[in-house]
């Protein structure tokens, strides 16, 4: 897939919601992920230059947060006198958030979750890219095994959880396995799709120039497939976080999911809310970290897109 | 073109791989390399699956799952399409709300499940809420972008022709947004099914997820049933995914993204 300016604006026909790479045109929207770029680009915001542009961009976008702030303030005010069991005042939640997660012991749950996630996600990412690349390289084998892969892919991985618990018991290996099993697919399928999308002409050129396989991979295959590999990795990240929590909710003695579940069973609703908020924050921080990495890795691509969009 | 690339050979290879896998599974459990207390044999699983197909319990569980999934999808998707369209049509609203929605999209939906369980218990409502909540955010974003993705030339043409109001919406906005919404719906259907199963597994609402859980808890003798239920869940996933992909192709055959796909396939 050559990065033509309008390519990602078409809904992709692939299996995962993928063809989305952040653009430079619109800081807040782009920082917050997804297919936003083409709209930012089309809405014709005049790009300025350098730091002044960044500052101006930040300022002109800051007002947009009013709605976000309003929602939070409304929640605070409306829940202030709440006597509902399920929706305690936001002030109490904030207080309890500080007591348990910052001053208290619950941090160990957070680290436990993050550790499993980090290991599982890394394995899923590496395996996903590797297997995707192999399936691309050996297309006939890939074709033959595709129905089996597809079937495993569409089984909701959570359904496998009880079986995996029965096989592996409760523990780190079970959690990591479930994260890998669920998170590997988007990366793998997007790697395969991205590599299939490389122009055959480029590969033929490499062959004519007698480039070594390594050089071909480095200068043609990887750059060509990178935008889609990153899209797959981002999707994998979200699924990885979900499965991290699900595995802790079903069978565990530690982790954020366990904390939430345990608070829920004690009917400590305020504490349960703090767990939910921590989970939400962790999920979004991981996503934003990923976007930051993606911008570095795909800097050349984003730059090329910006030039094309201006032209 | 060699024999390896003929259609029959390809199909044959696929069938062969599936058969080899099943045979391998059977061999491993017959040779007791796989621990039979945690991994039943292929024939036992298939026999159990065949028995389940004739039992009312399975169909009841399937019905519960489909009901939760369908209702949640219906509510979540209709809300998302209406809200997304309204937001997409107004630039001020769109710019204001996007940061909130983009943030909420990064929040793992599953975070809200414990709350739903406390509020509704192990009921259909809980499932429906989780599915509706889970599919709402991504589809809303997709709809907003679809509504805003009108081709500039088409938009200008509409302006020149003085198309306004409902006519502009039906003839310009909707056709351009339709493929975006269709993609969003296809993803939402798959995500919705996953969420339904998770809600049943963790929340204990009746359905395929709960059947898996109870059969696991019933001990090793019921293990084939567990794997049979997992197989059925997989089949449900295949059906949902292919049905939506097929519908998307049929309903949007006029759109260029589908035309390109068709050209590529030819």
TrEMBL record, chain A:
Keyword match Transmembrane: yes
Residue spans crossing the bilayer: 62-78, 117-136, 148-170, 176-192, 239-261, 273-293
Coiled coil: none
Entry keyword set: Cell membrane, Membrane, Transmembrane, Transmembrane helix, Transport
Localization in the cell: Cell membrane
Topology term for the membrane: Multi-pass membrane protein
Pfam families: BPD_transp_1
Keyword Transmembrane appears in the UniProt entry: yes
Residues making up the signal peptide according to the UniProt record: none
GO biological process, one term: transmembrane transport
Protein name stated in the entry: ABC transporter permease
Organism this protein belongs to: Geodermatophilus sabuli
UniProtKB/TrEMBL annotation, chain B:
Topology in membrane: Multi-pass membrane protein
Gene Ontology BP annotations: transmembrane transport
Ribosomal protein keyword on record: no
Domain called ABC transmembrane type-1: residue spans: 58-248
Main location: membrane
Gene Ontology cellular-component annotations: plasma membrane
TM ranges: 68-89, 101-122, 128-148, 193-213, 225-247
Family annotation (Pfam families): BPD_transp_1
Protein name as it appears in the record: ABC transporter permease
């Amino acid at each position: 897939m050559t990065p033509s300016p309008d390519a990602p604006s078409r809904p992709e026909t692939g299996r995962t919601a993928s063809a989305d790479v952040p653009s430079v045109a619109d800081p807040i929207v782009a920082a917050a992920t997804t297919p936003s770029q083409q709209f930012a680009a089309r809405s014709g915001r005049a790009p300025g230059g350098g730091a002044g542009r960044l500052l101006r961009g930040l300022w002109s976008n800051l007002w947009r947060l009013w709605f976000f702030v309003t929602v939070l303030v409304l929640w605070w005010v409306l829940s202030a006198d709440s006597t509902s069991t399920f929706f305690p005042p936001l002030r109490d939640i904030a207080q309890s958030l500080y007591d348990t997660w910052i001053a208290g012991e619950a941090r160990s749950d957070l680290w436990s979750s993050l550790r499993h996630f980090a290991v599982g996600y890394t394995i899923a990412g590496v395996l996903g890219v590797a297997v995707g690349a192999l399936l691309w390289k050996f297309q006939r084998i890939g074709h033959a095994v595709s129905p089996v892969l597809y079937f495993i892919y569409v089984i909701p991985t959570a359904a496998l959880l009880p079986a995996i618990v029965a096989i592996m018991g409760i523990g780190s290996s079970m959690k990591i396995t479930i994260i890998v099993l669920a998170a590997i697919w988007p990366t793998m399928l997007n790697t395969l799709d991205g590599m299939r999308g490389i122009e055959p002409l480029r590969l033929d050129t490499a062959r004519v120039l007698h480039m070594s396989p390594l050089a071909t991979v480095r200068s043609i295959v990887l750059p060509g497939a990178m935008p889609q590999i990153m899209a797959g990795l981002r999707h994998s990240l979200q699924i990885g976080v979900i499965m991290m929590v699900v595995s802790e909710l079903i069978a565990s003695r530690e982790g954020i999911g366990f904390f939430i579940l345990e608070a829920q069973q004690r009917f400590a609703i305020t504490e349960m809310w703090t767990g939910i908020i921590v989970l939400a924050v962790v999920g979004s921080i991981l996503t934003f970290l990923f976007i930051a990495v993606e911008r570095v890795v795909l800097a050349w691509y984003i730059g090329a897109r910006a030039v094309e969009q201006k032209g | 073109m060699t024999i390896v690339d003929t259609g029959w050979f390809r199909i044959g290879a696929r069938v062969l791989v599936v058969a080899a896998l099943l045979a391998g599974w059977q061999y491993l459990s017959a040779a007791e390399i796989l621990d039979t207390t945690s991994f039943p044999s292929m024939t036992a699983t298939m026999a159990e699956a065949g028995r389940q197909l004739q039992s009312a319990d399975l169909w009841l569980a399937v019905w519960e799952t489909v009901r939760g999934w369908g209702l949640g999808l219906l509510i979540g998707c209709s809300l998302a399409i209406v809200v997304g369209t309204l937001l997409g049509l107004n630039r001020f609203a769109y710019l204001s709300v996007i940061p909130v929605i983009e943030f909420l999209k990064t929040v793992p939906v599953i975070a809200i499940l414990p709350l739903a369980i406390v509020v509704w218990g192990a009921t259909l409502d809980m499932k429906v809420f989780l599915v509706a909540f889970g599919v709402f955010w991504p589809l809303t974003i997709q709809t907003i972008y679809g509504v805003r993705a009108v081709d500039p030339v088409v938009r200008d043409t509409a302006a020149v022709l003085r198309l306004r109001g409902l006519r502009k919406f039906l003839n310009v906005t909707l056709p351009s947004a339709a493929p975006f919404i269709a993609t969003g719906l296809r993803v939402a259907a798959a995500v919705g099914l996953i969420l339904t199963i998770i809600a049943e597994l963790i929340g204990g609402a009746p359905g395929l997820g709960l059947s898996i859980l109870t059969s696991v808890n019933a001990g090793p003798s019921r293990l084939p049933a567990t794997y049979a239920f997992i197989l059925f869940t997989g089949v449900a996933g295949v059906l949902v995914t292919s049905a939506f992909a097929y519908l998307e192709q049929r309903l949007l055959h006029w759109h260029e993204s589908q035309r390109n796909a068709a050209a590529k396939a030819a």
